[in-house]
Amino acid sequence: MIDMKRFIGLGWVLVLGLMIVGCGVKTDTTRYYYSPSWVRDGKIIMLGYLKSTDKDVLGSQLGSTASEYALTIYPTGTDESSALFDTTEEMAYAMSCSPTTDYVAYMTDLRLGLYRKIVIRNIASGAHTGLEVVELSFSPGIKSFDWANNGTSLVYCTTQEVRTVDVDGSNDSLVVADSNIEFVAWQTGGRIAFVHESGGNKILSLIRQNGGGRIDMSAAASVDLPQISSVNTNEVYGVAGDAYKKVNVNTSAVSDIVASGFEGALPRLSPDASMITYSKTDEVTGVYTLLVSNEVETKVK
After folding, report:
1. Residue 242 carries which DSSP code?
2. 259, exposed or middle or buried, with CB in 10 Å at 0-12, 13-18, 19+?
3. How far apart are CA 223 and CA 219, in angstroms?
4. What is the pLDDT of residue 8?
5. Which residues sit opposite 298 in a β-bridge?
6. How many whole angstroms separate alpha carbon 53 and alpha carbon 142?
7. Which CA distances in Å does 164 have to 24, 58, 65?
């Protein structure tokens, strides 16, 4: 009887050994999608994160690898691209594409709430011409940036200034000085939108590149994370509390796009101003679109 137990025990050891050798290493793959913006042709550009974990037959982790990269896809979920470029070592923030050229830019090197670099990359299909990759450095850093309406220069803000700069780093020029500046946007029209805090309120202001024609909206007619409409450049979309709204900066009229419960993180308005894209603040993965005409939300990835 004892010999039989030993035989059975040795048999199980042999079976387990064969299982381990036969099955080898199992790789679990997890993908995350986030931080979307728009390309000028109407595709969405976003970041993808791929994590691969190797496990043995017992489920114990043997090792893992991770990579972050940029990709594009249409809002319908079709024509997904392969990886355009790798951002694993950079940790890209707030991607924004030129409205007139095939370039994307994003902030990186975050320290104490300020970004020390803007990276500009060529994402044209086929053979690339012109600049391939450019890095602009800022000290101590910037809060936000966007493309200028010409698509070949940038607007950016520190906590104290709104400035413009060409993509090669030249012609860095002051637009306006203020205090507690948090966000800046442009892309289209003749005025730059920026948000600054005053008296405990986030105030939306608009100004021309030469510093003239400044408009300061009231707190009730201000939105955060503004996006200027290409269809009507007097209309600015943005977040107000847990709502998403549209403001006419000429009349101060405010319209609800989403009256309450909006959870979008850094929503971006499409080139034709028909929809916004965003990830959600309470989700680790997911890219969405929302039609501004009827609040229809679609999960793209």
Report:
1. T
2. exposed
3. 8
4. 46
5. 289
6. 36
7. 56, 57, 39
The b/e string for 130-159 (b: 16+ C-beta within 10 A; e otherwise) is: eeeeeebebeebbbbbbbbbebebbbbbbb
Cβ atoms within 10 Å, residue 293 = 9
Q: Which residues of 16-33 are buried (b: 16+ CB within 10 A; e: fewer)?
A: eeeeeeeeeeeeeeeebb
Rg of the chain (C-alpha set):
24
Q: Is 150 helix (H, G, I), strand (E, B) or coil?
A: coil
Q: Write the pLDDT tens digit of every residue in 194-248.
A: 999 999 999 999 999 999 999 999 999 999 999 999 999 999 999 999 999 999 9
For the chain, list the domains and their CATH numbers: 24-299 (2.120.10.30)
d(CA 192, CA 68): 31
pLDDT digits (tens, 9 = 90+) for 45-69: 999 999 988 776 666 767 778 999 9
Report how far residue 53's alpha carbon sits from residue 215's, in angstroms, rounded to the nearest whole number. Answer: 53
Beta bridge partners of 235: 248
d(CA 52, CA 34): 18
Amino acid at 32: Y
Q: In this predicted structure, what is the pLDDT of residue 53? A: 81
Helices (H), ranges, the chain: 2-23
- Rounded CA-CA distance 276/246 in Å is 12
Distance of CA 208 to the CA centre of its chain: 25
Rounded CA separation 268/36 (Å) = 8
Binning pLDDT at 50, 70 and 90, where does residue 24 land? low
Peptide bond into 140 cis (omega under 30): yes
